[in-house]
Amino acid sequence: MWIEREISSELRDIASSFPVVVLVGPRQVGKTSVLERTFTSRTYVSLDVAAHAEMAETRPEEFLQLYPPPVVIDEVQYAPAFFRQIKTFVDAHRGEYGLFILSGSQNFILMNNIADSLAGRAAVIPFADLSGTEWQAAYEPSREMWHEFLWRGGYPRLWDTPEAPVSRDRWYQGYVATYLERDVRNLLNVGNLRDFERFLRACAARCAQTLNMSEIGRDVGISATTARQWISVLQASGQIFLLEPYYKSLGKRLAKSPKLYFMDTGLAAFLMGFQSARAMLKSHFIGALWENYVISQWLRWRDWHQPSASLWYWRDQAGNEVDLLIETGTTLTAIECKLTERPSNRDTKGLTRLVSFYKNISEIKCFIACTSPQPFGITENVEARDGWTVWDLEL
């Protein structure tokens, strides 16, 4: 079953303005499928095939003769030397757009090569698995189905055969094993993959928490320096993202460390060991997973539709916190995440403190992302909204 992706129409527009378009994201999020369906008239070639990667790396001119632009090239990170050939071709065809549509699953390698060879020539678009908006359009879900989506996650393969659904646990088991063997070994010389898998599970247990390298390293039995390197691997391969603290206040940084989130709550829930949505909903982790889900939806919105927006969290010295700040120009949109249908006045404490703190600096719009299907006012300045999907910020 094909689920239409939000980014498809924008990809066509971007390709008409840049000679190179690069779609980056984790494995199995649907990069190949969306590119094949969006650019149907172009030749497609994958460098995941060793012979293709070897030709692009060692005989790039021959490769371009065999696969001339405009062309879609998947897993392009496997031929790092090929980026120089792309640059040469683009420079020789100035004024032509959409020559190369590239994709890759190792952001660190891709971005290094793009910075070296394609600066100013390429539009880079982060990609992820299904957003709540995409999934809702395909399934028109009940409230109970939304809980299943939170637990199962948004990887398209888990939803493409509704009449015979893929075993969620078996799929994630294979995904983690493949990820460890392919991406981790390529990105970092990890001597013991079992230690890295334990580190991955320790990160899942800390989703929506402030990241403490020394603490997580101690729990896994590695140094803080190694923990920092391994966090970089998880970021580079698109498994996690770090939300930095907002500190635009009289030169003072209110919080120093970022918060850790997974791009997909299904993977986080699997690593935590939840074998059903019911078990997840009854656990003390459910609040963190809800916060993770809501913020990851807004990250998709930023990456796909509003790249100029900045995402932050806020915490003051007294411990008052707001889960998400979206900064667009001079406006701040503050979002607190509460897994309830009826948030109350006491849930607005952090938002109230934030507004008081910045009352003379910025315009602030305040919301609580909850599970109520209908918006309603909580206080004069705070509105409750359905957190399963993003809403119109009226920018």
Fold and architecture overview:
The chain is of the alpha/beta class and about 400 residues long. It has 3 domains: about 10-125, P-loop containing nucleotide triphosphate hydrolases (Rossmann fold, 3-Layer(aba) Sandwich), CATH 3.40.50; about 130-295, Winged helix-like DNA-binding domain superfamily/Winged helix DNA-binding domain (Arc Repressor Mutant, subunit A), CATH 1.10.10; about 295-385, Trna Endonuclease, Chain: A, domain 1 (3-Layer(aba) Sandwich). Helices cover about 45% and strands about 15% of the residues. The protein is built from 16 helices and 14 strands. It has helices at about 10-15, 30-40, 50-60, 60-65, 80-90, 105-115, 130-140, 145-150, 170-185, 195-205, 215-220, 225-235, 265-270, 275-280, 285-305, 350-355, and strands at about 20-25, 45, 70-75, 100-105, 120-125, 210, 240-245, 260, 310-315, 320-330, 330-335, 365-370, 375, 380-385. A 6-stranded mixed sheet has the order 9-10-11-12-14-13, with helices on both faces. The protein has a 5-stranded parallel sheet with strand order 2-3-4-1-5, with helices on both faces. A hairpin with a 2-residue loop joins strand 10 and strand 11 (about 330-335). Helix 1 packs across helix 2. The radius of gyration is 22 Å and the shape is globular. The model has no long low-confidence stretch (mean pLDDT about 90).
